[in-house]
Automatic annotation (TrEMBL):
It comes from the Bacteria. SUPFAM superfamilies: Glyoxalase/Bleomycin resistance protein/Dihydroxybiphenyl dioxygenase. This is VOC family protein. InterPro entries: Glyas_Bleomycin-R_OHBP_Dase, Glyas_Fos-R_dOase_dom, VOC_core.
Amino acid sequence: MDYRIEVLTLPVSDVDASLAFYRSLGFNVDVDYHPRDGFRVVQVTPPGSACSIQFGEGLTDAAPGSARTNYLVVDDLEAAHRELVANGIKIGDIRHKEPIDTWAGELAPGLDPDRMPYASMAELADPDGNTWTLQEINNR
């Protein structure tokens, strides 16, 4: 039996600000459905992803900004970081786990020298403070 994650729901306070933010990340807008007052669902999908995120009004009672440490995986962290900065996204500096073989939570500046998968990352947040870790995995 396969189990696939298809959609994750993010709690937001301003649907339009969130929609603008995720569009600026390059996410595709799959759905923007607002059939009545008090209910709206927006579903967006990162390019190349099988999993989407949704946010809106009347979808969750979780506090806006409470979705923490979500991951976006990219093949080339430097290129993704440059692209996001060029699009006006505030993103933290690239850091890597050190030492990778016995990692105990320490991070050093820049990419992992060996470009090991799961070792390099940078953080960003949406307008409500839902956080994302952009992580390089260039092989599995």
